[in-house]
Fold each of these.
Amino acid sequence: MSADVLTAEHAGFRYADVPVLHDVNLRVEARSMLALTGANGAGKSTLLHLLAGVTPPTEGRILRRPGTRLALLPQRTSDIDALPLTVAECVQIGRFTLRRRLSRDDRARVAAIMQRLDIAHLARQRLRELSGGQRQRTLIAQALVQDADIYVLDEPTAALDTRSRRQVHDLLAERVATGAAVIIASHDPTEATLATRTIHLQGATPVA
């Protein structure tokens, strides 16, 4: 059985007749990390949205293995600040389902990842009261507390200091080691070296 959990076949996207991405072909395997690099405007966020199923491609197709669970951390999440959520409530969203309430295990998982990302002491603070780095760590916790097969993260460590970046890198490595696939867009050369494979976006066409 193929280890591929997600594939893009000749995928592309046009916005108002302007090509943003063209003829993207890639395969994402379980237990791997794919890094997307490139200058601002190269299409990294657009490609992540295509892969996550948020935006349909205007050409080609994106295929995900049936039953695959995906967690997405987008780059622009300012709308969430308008919600009167505490840090703990925001992270707990990653464990919610429509079928049941949070269990004792769910709450333990939330507490554990908040501890790992040094936000446990902020549990009762509102998101709008946080610094940029604290807010970003909260959103990373919400994504990584999910039981996902694929984690799609758009520049997750851009607002973080060196220590916090190392914490996130350790968590991503753990997810890969336990069988997940991680897809990350980044400007950080260090993050790219952690990846199993790197794709550089240059213009509308990716270069492996």
Amino acid sequence: MKLTAKQRQFADEYIKSGNATQSYIKAGYKVKSEKVAGVNSTRMLGNARVKAYIDAKMAEIESHKIADAREAMQAITSIARGETTETQAQLNPLTGKWEKIEVPADLKTRLTAWREILKRYPLADALTKAQLRKANADARVAEARAKALEDNGQDVATALDEIMDKLVRESDKESDSKA
């Protein structure tokens, strides 16, 4: 694919802009008019070597858009380690307006990322399995705490109401039995 410097410049400009006429002019070809540049640029696009160069460059550009296995593992690892953040909307209690905040991935998402990593590396030793069980248990405890905070202690209040009702019933039974 041996191209002259001007042909390569034309092809690179064409890849950037998609405008053959302007690419022909920017490549430094001398033209009398834009019409002549249009005709010559069409001929240039018909040149087998120029076309092959453009096709090869376009394929290279497209291949960079697709993540490979290494990049995927790096992204999953970043999530698992809590290095990746996500945007969430939160109501500001002072202003009453919604604000966007960046927060690290929650424990459930991080554990899922760790599982994805571990699928690729078999668990051979008991220590690793125990550490994974501990991480799962910690995640369940953290989720239970978060749920309790979300409920604002509602389950505690409900439990206390049930206990008080039971005490009142028992007290009423004792009062009825003494009377």
Amino acid sequence: MKAAPHASPAGTLEFGASGSRSRQVKAGRAVRLAPGVYVVGATLPPETVARKHLNAIVAHLWPGAVISDRSAFTGGQPEEGWLFIRHPDPQRRADLVLPGVTVTVQDGPGPLPGDMPMPEGLHLSGVARGLVENVTGRGRPPVGRPSRAAGTQAVEDHIDALARTGGSGKIKNVLAEVDLLKGSLDAGAVEIVRSRLAELLGTFAPTAPASARLQARLEGEPFDAHRVGMFERLAEGLTAMPPLPAPALGGSSRWEWLAFFEAYFSNFIEGTEFGVEEARSIAIDGDIPAARPQDAHDVAATFRILSDPALAGHKPVSGSDMLDLLREHHRVLMAARPDKRPGEFKEKQNYAGGYQFVEPALLVGTLRRGFDAFASVTDPLQRAAAMMFLITECHPFDDGNGRVARIIANAELTATGQVRLIIPTVYRNNYLAGLSSVSNEAGRGEAFLSVLRFAQRWVAAVDWRSFDRAHADITESFGYNDPALAESSGLRLRLPGS
């Protein structure tokens, strides 16, 4: 259909049936959204047109209505094709079925204290009212449509989010708003919300929350629910892939120089760059260059951990054990950098390229629950991938997160007699892309595990019996090459001798 010049693509909303409107519909100049509801001159699809005019349609049929219940939790936007409203005296009680969205009304109070004005004279349930309306009600769930209430667990999750973003001040304000709603909304639902808010301020509640997030906050260990869900999905993806064991054969002499090169590359990809000969002098001979003592300590400390079989193979057996191990490794690694607060978890939010890691207040709870989420992952390489991602995604320290993550991950391999992982310089971008694919939930960890499997194959192919042999194999396979320059030259990490 064609619109008049300068007309809105959403057309003009008109109400009431007439012969002329029917003719416009037949001619393609108008769209009938519902009985008595038309839009003239629209060029957008009917579903989009209905969304554009939704508030005006609702206001026409239910003047002064309040967008409520689970629709309050979505900011007044339809969810799964449904919009829920309340009106003190609805003249129309039947659902309004529009293209792409159905509006359903229930008797209820008009605007209350805390409700937010919306366009066309509508209101949106305020924070306190939205919590009360969404408490699980009595009776059977409806058939063929979502419940009006999002449920008590969703309410408690929202309360947890309020506490996380607004602290006790926000909780006190919402509690005061809830007290104003007594007599206007269901008394039982008001009391449930009130008790949960008061519990956050230190008042005892007789029943435990349904929300794991709120319960964790009350216990003093709130967690990042989105990240924990991400860890659970990664665990499902990893366990669905067949394991490919890679036993570290050949005796200790076969792997003599592995620890040194692992320490060298683990620091190099984090920006602590030395020539490999100079790094050998630092780690093996203890020669600390006067110009870069802190960088030299990073390399030497990493080598000290990796060359100790007990430390290199110490895999955490619980969330608490992991927390202790993380802090201890970090204390050793960052000992020469007091400004990085060795052995102390972060207190400020950290980022990488605009990507936000877990908030400091949620860190400990997220690490614990993340560790538990990976309990089903038992294959050594898959578990190494899980631990590496868990620690990297949480980013628990001000600095040194990548090095600590790789140490913890490789312990899963050493403890089970498998080949450890090294990320050579040329493979850095592949490694980071693999981690990013999991963070962005592109797949279920297939790309990341594939990157680590090739790194493990490369480690197994290098001759680590002497410095010279390992150095020659790494050089031949382009391991030392700068990743950006190698990519522009068409070079990739390859297996020695291939």
Amino acid sequence: MSVHSTSGIVAWSDTDASGRFHHTAAYRWAESTEHALYRSVLPDIDIGRFPRRATAASYHRPLTAGDEYTVGLEVEHVGNSSITYTWTVTGPAGVCVRGEHTAVHVDADGRPAPVPQVLRERLVPTTGVA
């Protein structure tokens, strides 16, 4: 399946009173990586058409303001109207967060709709095996 990654630096606003990144920051970073993937395929894509259906994360190491991190987002499954991703946030000391989420493509009325074909083709590359 397809893999996409982005990097960043933990901002002060990403931290909580402990000085460590707030648990919601990892979700924002993963979502930003997902959106970058969509825009790399379809620059004018309506990102609002991919709401979350399910999310989960486990936290392994802290990050603090100024730490560099990388998000690796992997396409786990592409269904008719949904896409499931697994992702890892890695910092200077190794894996900090492992997570997953499922997004559902919806139409203008908010009903599930097929994943756009050009996006599907990019997320599920063909191997040439018959």
